[in-house]
């Protein structure tokens, strides 16, 4: 399952047309469009709207660990208009909270830091793109899917030589449409990662842990998930180093594996 959050209909329209999405008339809270395996929601502008819409969408689906993408326009001091970036660090300007979506796939454009503002701005912090939605989207999406399956992609709509103005639908559609193929390629790679993350770890992967520690049925599911995440992020199974061997409890082993993953991708 692929979930796409856009603030504006102009940002959403190229994806609605590409995926041939149909308006969901049974969903009245937001403009929502879907096919069998893609759902897009238009949140309106601002991080609070983005958070509310993404949380609402997450609550309405039954698919485990959906791929979630925030796609729209953003400003940047020096990047050329129409350039697409992937957001390697998203920071909320009010709280200072940061997210670092892992760059685990090939089909991502150049990474940039993104600062989410509470209000529209016409100044550009050094080395940051700016928008008004991404931090809200991340706040909500990380509650129901792992960060490995989340990406924020932005198309530069304004810079210091071309300050933000009133964009019409045609302009925004024309900015985003050339990047549809790249966005879809990234989505397909994330969906492939999702297959790994939602699959059961093989007995061969789990057997060394099962021999060393006793896991409850629930902990076995936790172990399976964390081993899959480790393979996705590091490309291999965990090393059996002394720190791991010294751990006395199954709960401690799971916590240590999670710590290593989070250290690699905070």
Strand order of the largest sheet: 5-9-8-6-10
Anisotropy-based shape: globular
Main beta sheet? 5 strands, mixed, barrel
Q: What's the number of extended β-strand segments? A: 10
Question: Would you tell me the overall average pLDDT?
Answer: 89
CATH superfamily of the largest domain: Nucleoside phosphorylase domain
* CATH architecture title of the largest domain: 3-Layer(aba) Sandwich
Overall structural class, as computed from helix and strand content, comes to alpha/beta
CATH topology of the largest domain: Rossmann fold
Sequence of secondary-structure elements: EHEEEHEEEEEHEHHHHHH
The CATH class designation of the largest domain is Alpha Beta
How many distinct domains? Answer: 2
Secondary structure elements and pairings:
Blueprint: E1 2-6, H1 9-19, E2 22-23, E3 31-34, E4 38-42, H2 47-60, E5 67-76, E6 84-92, E7 98-99, E8 111-116, E9 128-131, H3 134-141, E10 150-158, H4 169-176, H5 180-198, H6 203-212, H7 217-234, H8 242-245, H9 250-264
Parallel strand pairs: 1-4, 1-5, 5-10, 6-8, 8-9
Antiparallel strand pairs: 2-3, 3-4, 5-9, 6-7, 6-10
Describe the protein.
There is one protein chain. The protein contains nine helices and ten strands. The chain is an alpha/beta fold. The protein folds into two domains: 196 residues, Nucleoside phosphorylase domain (Rossmann fold, 3-Layer(aba) Sandwich); 65 residues. The protein has a five-stranded mixed beta barrel. A hairpin with a 7-residue loop joins strand 2 and strand 3. Helix 2 packs parallel to helix 3. The longest helix has 19 residues. It is globular. The two termini are 25 Å apart. 39% of the residues are buried.
